[in-house]
Amino acid sequence: DVPDLPNIHNFNPAFATSIPRYDNLDVVLPPLVPMLRHLDKHQPDCIHISTPGPVGLVGYVAAKMLRVPVLGVYHTDFPAYVDHLFEDHAFTSMCRGFMRFFYSPFHSIFTRSDDYVAALERLGLPRERTVSLMPGFDTTVFDRRFRDVDAWSEYPGVMRDSVKALYVGRVSIEKNLPLLTGAWPEARQRAKEAGVDAELIIVGDGPYRKKMEGELKKHGAHFLGFRHGEELSRIYASCDMFVFPSTTDTLGQVVMESQGSALPVLVSDVGGPKEVVRHGETGFVLPGESDQGTAALRGPWTDHIALLLSDHDKRRTMGDAAHAFMQTYSIRNSFEHFWDVHVQAWHEHLVARGIEPKGPEQVHRTRPRADRAEQTEATV
């Protein structure tokens, strides 16, 4: 289901099937002719592609037919996902080759973090066409005002007054969840020895859920499945800390949402999430990879989970700092940057055709992230 709004058009796929080893997601064969007719009718100035798959290929074909610039976002690190799910270097190499082929013609390629600008360059894509999009989320939807510990009565087995660690996202191997599965029981035991009842709340679903549920069955873990809207906002704000060990996220939107909800966070030092966390102030950035294997990583995660579970004052201080820090990441500022890059692409396209665009170009795509974050909504 999609919102019934005049600027959203949903097309039923000609064919759909589950992705191998990822039954929660489908790969689809889009209806090519109806989509191309729709785009021809609306005559867009630019086309933005969000996913490098069949639907994205339709967008690229349309852009070639309409002779308009195509832009896109490198939203998901598919080569890393393939590597984790299949553990086959040949598949990973093929995926990297396809990513390079798919994104090479784009006028601009957005990444969700500075970390992935370098990653795309290593993939073989031109750095000058890569744009680090200013992160943003809806600060009015994910906010501490939704905290309501009485709401836990709606979830069987969850204690009202326990200290709750939260994870939100796909429950899958590529999110590095075996690390959390291994670290949680000992961290919870240490909290218990300090007189603290602790529980782990998992929101989301995926192929690793059944195994994770089995391993954490006796360790205070509760799997809530998918949650949305105000219920999700309430779950965020009613927990006490956020744990996100992923090493494959280009940004980690949930890391911003949790901090906006006044939760201190634990994230990996690999990938994009670390760029929206102030280590030691709004949370902790911990090792995500080790030559010595998962067991060597478990210690720091266990230590820091146990620390936050047991130290109420530290959780509150870091949560307050996280909430304040996230107020600069307004979705309005993020959209302004996103829109300006598309305006520039259209203007450059017009100039290439001998047409001088009206009005000054406003984009400074090399503008430092710190400068973008300091924009106020008044300037937007």
Catalogue the unreliable spans: 361-380
Strand content: 15-25%
Task: Give the % helix.
Answer: 40-55%
Largest sheet: 6 strands, parallel
**Strands of the largest sheet, in order across it?**
9-8-7-10-11-12
Distance between the termini: 32 Å
Overall pLDDT confidence: 88
Count of alpha/pi helices: 13
What's the Cα radius of gyration?
22 Å
Order of helices and strands: EEHEHEHHEHEEHEHEHEHEEHHHH
Number of beta strands: 12
- Class based on secondary structure composition and strand pairing: alpha/beta
- Anisotropy-based shape: globular
Overview of the structural elements:
- With 380 residues, the chain is of the alpha/beta class.
- 42% of the residues lie in helices and 15% in strands.
- It has 13 helices and 12 strands.
- It has helices at 32-42, 54-66, 78-86, 89-103, 115-123, 177-193, 209-215, 229-238, 253-260, 294-310, 312-326, 331-352, 369-373, and strands at residues 15-19, 22-29, 47-49, 70-74, 108-111, 130-132, 163-168, 198-203, 221-225, 241-244, 265-268, 283-286.
- Strands 9-8-7-10-11-12 form a 6-stranded parallel β-sheet, with helices on both faces. A 4-stranded parallel β-sheet has the order 3-4-5-6, sandwiched between helices. Strands 1-2 form a two-stranded antiparallel sheet.
- A hairpin with a 2-residue loop joins strand 1 and strand 2.
- Helix 1 (32-42) packs across helix 2 and helix 6 (177-193) packs across helix 10 (294-310).
- The relative contact order is 0.11.
- Mean pLDDT is 88; it is low at 361-380.
